[in-house]
Amino acid sequence: MASLRQIYVTTGIVIGIIILGLIALTSWYTVDESDQAVILTFGKAEETITEPGLKFKLPWPIQSVEKVSKETYSLQFGFGENSNEEDAKMITGDENIVYADLVVQYKIADPIKYLFNAENPREILYDATSASLRSIIGSSQIDDALTDGKAEIEAEVWDLLTRLVDSYDIGVSIQAVKLQDVELPNDEVQKAFTKVTDARETMQTKLNEAEKYKNQMINEAEGEVEAIISRAAGEKAARIEEARGNVAVFNSLLTEYQKSPEVTRDRLVIETLERVLPNAQIYIMNDDSGTLTYLPLNPVQQAQPPVNTSEEENKEGENNE
């Protein structure tokens, strides 16, 4: 009996040690900064742990932990090792076939929904991406898909894909959508479209140059207008000042005239004659005396040309003969 009891005690101690070891090993877990954890109680999701550090839970099999990453995932559509070329093949709104490559960046926003609302959420996201891209490409023109309409297509794909993912409720948040490339299936068609694109770029360059020249001419014209206005304002101010000076002179003369009308009148006449005939000699005479006035003629005689002496002598000799 003693040996049997000892066996039971030993077995109990071993089982207790195993249980304690199991509790110690399965009751503590670590959450990294780049991870988030979901606590499962008998297989049912209870809560989400997002704070990093050493955490405690009830031992297995009561509670268990599922971890998912907080990082941004990339889903490649239309190219890559596991991609099918037919997935990238689609038709545009004007019935042209193109190959489109797309990258979707997403995060796991709700770990519980991501783990338990769908068996394969990444496959669901891939199918939703395919449906969204085909829908938008199918309503777009080939020119928009190949040239400057890519940004608008990306925005529309992001909006449609976000609404689809939200309706599927798989716990995924779409961060960005990048349309990598859109190509034509035929080389000849590709070359022809490249020529069309080059011609459009040349046209846009010419339009930009014309707009630049237009702006330059407008700026020069505006500058010339400002210069003319400035000169006109200066001339206006000069004429106003000149007029004010003339008015001041006239007022001064008026004052003098009111004091001595005759003297002022005579002075104005004399000043006017001096200004009109600057080189003339002016004589002021009083004819009330009734006498004959003698005017010096020296200036007039001096103004006459001199007579040639030899010619006069010849004329005198002829007369004597």
TrEMBL record:
<keyword id="KW-0645">Protease</keyword>
<dbReference type="InterPro" id="IPR036013">
    <property type="entry name" value="Band_7/SPFH_dom_sf"/>
</dbReference>
<keyword id="KW-1133">Transmembrane helix</keyword>
<feature type="region of interest" description="Disordered">
    <location>
        <begin position="295"/>
        <end position="321"/>
    </location>
</feature>
<comment type="function">
    <text>HflC and HflK could encode or regulate a protease.</text>
</comment>
<feature type="transmembrane region" description="Helical">
    <location>
        <begin position="7"/>
        <end position="29"/>
    </location>
</feature>
<keyword id="KW-0812">Transmembrane</keyword>
<dbReference type="InterPro" id="IPR010201">
    <property type="entry name" value="HflK"/>
</dbReference>
<dbReference type="InterPro" id="IPR001107">
    <property type="entry name" value="Band_7"/>
</dbReference>
<keyword id="KW-0472">Membrane</keyword>
<dbReference type="GO" id="GO:0006508">
    <property type="term" value="P:proteolysis"/>
</dbReference>
<keyword id="KW-0378">Hydrolase</keyword>
<feature type="compositionally biased region" description="Polar residues">
    <location>
        <begin position="299"/>
        <end position="309"/>
    </location>
</feature>
<dbReference type="Pfam" id="PF01145">
    <property type="entry name" value="Band_7"/>
</dbReference>
<protein>
    <recommendedName>
        <fullName>Protein HflK</fullName>
    </recommendedName>
</protein>
<feature type="domain" description="Band 7">
    <location>
        <begin position="26"/>
        <end position="197"/>
    </location>
</feature>
<comment type="similarity">
    <text>Belongs to the band 7/mec-2 family. HflK subfamily.</text>
</comment>
<comment type="subunit">
    <text>HflC and HflK may interact to form a multimeric complex.</text>
</comment>
<dbReference type="GO" id="GO:0008233">
    <property type="term" value="F:peptidase activity"/>
</dbReference>
